[in-house]
Amino acid sequence: QVQLVQSGAEVKKPGSSVKVSCKASGGPVNIYAIGWVRQAPGQGLEWMGRIIPSFPRENYAPKLQGRVTITMDEGTGTAHMRLSSLRYDDTAVYYCVTSLGILDGYSWGSWGQGTLVTVSS
Amino acid sequence: EIVLTQSPGTLSLSPGERATLSCRASQSVSSSYLGWYQQEPGQPPRLLIYGASTRATGIPDRFSASGSGTDFTLTISRLEPEDSAVYYCHQYDSSPYTFGQGTKLEIK
Prior knowledge:
The structure holds two protein chains of two kinds. Chain A has strands spanning 3-6, 10-12, 18-25, 33-39, 46-52, 57-60, 68-73, 78-83, 92-99, 110-111, 115-119. Chain A is mostly beta strands. The model of chain B has no long low-confidence stretch (mean pLDDT 97). Chains A and B meet through β5 of A and β4, β5, β8 and β9 of B.
């Protein structure tokens, strides 16, 4: 099982950018894909995008295309999600998620604890 | 984009009963890439089912799922108080991946 530990809460101004980190631990793991999912207060889950580090290959949600970038530093086992041009409706809890590929059916078997990003003037 | 519609929105049942949750897709989803997640208040979601019917590690056999094409079902038998949560279906067959809006399960 992969443990994912995310960076702490952030408060940002509209128009600025935020970068959230996610470090994987739990022994030697071969992560197939890393994704990010967000959840606005009191709302459901929204898929943001994912990367497959070994290819590499990226997919992003169309509504966030151009504003979101997901990267992976395989040396440190740390993933990053950068969201730019922040708006008030970007206020949400951001989760990093990982897939071990065929071992969890390419689904998101591990979730980070979540990082609250608040956009406020 | 594949839209997933879950029903009912809220389900209120008693301990020991069976819950049946539905997830309908706007277009066909490969069974290999349909999952179910459970989210308890204040917690991140937890993977219950992947590949439409395969329980994730550590998930009790009270949880079962089935379906194909555009209609998928999650069944929770012998309900326990700790099953109170919101349940989401998720398709990761076609990008952009999408989630259903969730079904809130309340245990009376």
